[in-house]
Specification:
elongated; single chain; 41% helix; 241 residues; alpha+beta; 6 helices
Amino acid sequence: MLHFAVQWVDQHPLTWLNGAFPSSYEVDGWALNLSETRLDAKPPMPMTEDEARSGMTPILDAWTAVLEIEQRLVVTFYYLGASLEPDATERGTAADFATVSATAFDAAVTIQRGTPREPDWSWRDTEATQLARTMCLRPLRNGSRPVADAAYWLVTHLKQWADTESAAAARLNVSTAYVKRVRLLGARSHERKVTPNSLELTAQDKEFLNNALEELVRRLHLVESGLPPGERLDLTDGRDP
């Protein structure tokens, strides 16, 4: 049995509904028991501690990626150790790693969450997807990175990932025009860089960029997981004002 402390971060100050925990999941023969501050993971068969930790790594990677993309929850699992037999009385406390300061978020609304939904365990987290979340999506959502700067960074990241901008668009099943508009709005925004060609983004421009970044990062995770990215997306599908 592997034991992890759990740290949760939301876009807003976070509390949980009564009955949200404990929650149980099964994946690839593993039995997972999740509380607000603790995760206990029982392997499908006897194995060494190193084997168990190696087996859990892709499961935890998928979990963190899906929770952040689809449920806007940032979760971190801290390894505490292993035990030969499950101990039903042993539980982590809020002192483990579960206390999260709300001062990092400029929000007055406290979000009450229910039990985290079971994710699509087929997701995989790679260096490309981790960077997209930590450098683009997460700071965009918590307000620490302007949308134009996040947009320009993401298109640059996708170009490096796929070698060219058009290749990135093709792999994500979006039109080149869609990706180009994300780049141009990000590059020309006066919030990112003041030049003779700078422009002031409208509320519609910013809404388009916010929607586009959410969608492009989600599609990147799907493609990196070997999954279909979704239906063709271009500038005429209603997402663009």
